[in-house]
Amino acid sequence: MPGKRARRHFSQLSEFERGLIIEMKTAGWSTRRVAGQVDRSECAVRNCWEQWTRGGTHARKTGSGATRKTTRRGDRRNVWQAFVDLTVTRSTIRADVGVAIVPQTISRHIAEANLKSKCTFRALPLTPEHRQLRLQWCQARSMWNVTDWQKIVFSDESRFVLGTDDNRVWVWRGPV
């Protein structure tokens, strides 16, 4: 699959791959040949080799990546908020944190807890009484002809939203 190859090109090199690249480059292989052998981009191979020649190490730098804005305890508290109050929003949780974090971080933590954002019920389930009334309505009109049915207007209750907000209430739900 071409998508898998492209994603692999942008993932971090493992320690084994870094050592393999150093060995192949030390043996005199070209950057292009090494990149094809380890299935990585030439840029990744070149960066690994330059780090080895400059610093004498192939290990990743410590502390690379974004710094954490919240603690693990704070993350658990945010997930707990979603468990306790199913209608809590990401922006509400973000305001309670007190630190500038992006909403995607909150969603990721909640998704790791196996909760998903879902729309609330559109309608209540039908009771046996409702089903009986619907059946009676249909039976009373079973002998109608086309001209009788042309006088009735049906609606499929589709929603058309011209703006960005459809005013639906989203809730956090666990696996069913």
TrEMBL record:
One of its GO terms (molecular function) is nucleic acid binding. It is found in: Nucleus. GO terms for cellular component: nucleus. InterPro entries: Homeodomain-like_sf (IPR009057), RNaseH_sf (IPR036397). This is HTH_Tnp_Tc3_2 domain-containing protein. It comes from Trichonephila clavipes. The lineage of its organism: Eukaryota, Metazoa, Ecdysozoa, Arthropoda, Chelicerata.
